[in-house]
Amino acid sequence: MTKLTLYVGNKNYSSWSLRPWLALEACGVPFEDVVIPFDFPAGNPKFRDISPTGRVPVLHHGDIRVWESLAIIEYVAELFPQAGLWPEDPAERAVARSYSMEMLSGFRALRGACPMNMRREKRAINLPNDVMGDVERIETIWREAVARSGGPFLFGRFTAADAMFAPVVNRFEVYDLTRNPGSLAYMDAVKTHPAFAKWQEAALKETWIVPEDEA
């Protein structure tokens, strides 16, 4: 099979890059990753050479280009059905996709106020009510999913749905957004997964600083 190449941004900051990278890595899909760092505020012109949107992540598979995190995950799930990126049960798979779409299109207040930052020292900041509304909804998803599956992940084993929420796990930790024991247990399961640890290790070695993401 033609090699898969996933182009990503700074591993310290790029939440949308983390999502497909983590899904592929955790589920054993073979791929190469290439980091192209952000160059704020103008953006990195190299992105235009690899992505029709001028953004990352983008997956190259021969002549095929797939952009947007969830589209990349869906494409790879079709290529590697044996990898189990989604739950096997159709009903659970539908819920997993619903959660993932909710993350894709929602929680804008949280994402805007609390950028993903793997290097950030844990410290709370003052947050408006709409951010805490996002936090409450996310914790409801985690609580209901883990209760239904038995955990430790949303659908028992690690799936693409967990990958979609992984940047939020970082946000909850470094901005000290929860003290809920159930949420902390789920966060710990994600943080100690070997794939997440591998990304974080690479992120902590980066030296690029993006002031816009240093909340």
Automatic annotation (TrEMBL):
<dbReference type="InterPro" id="IPR036282">
    <property type="entry name" value="Glutathione-S-Trfase_C_sf"/>
</dbReference>
<dbReference type="InterPro" id="IPR040079">
    <property type="entry name" value="Glutathione_S-Trfase"/>
</dbReference>
<dbReference type="InterPro" id="IPR036249">
    <property type="entry name" value="Thioredoxin-like_sf"/>
</dbReference>
<dbReference type="Pfam" id="PF13410">
    <property type="entry name" value="GST_C_2"/>
</dbReference>
<dbReference type="InterPro" id="IPR004045">
    <property type="entry name" value="Glutathione_S-Trfase_N"/>
</dbReference>
<dbReference type="Pfam" id="PF13409">
    <property type="entry name" value="GST_N_2"/>
</dbReference>
<feature type="domain" description="GST N-terminal">
    <location>
        <begin position="4"/>
        <end position="84"/>
    </location>
</feature>
<protein>
    <submittedName>
        <fullName>Glutathione S-transferase family protein</fullName>
    </submittedName>
</protein>
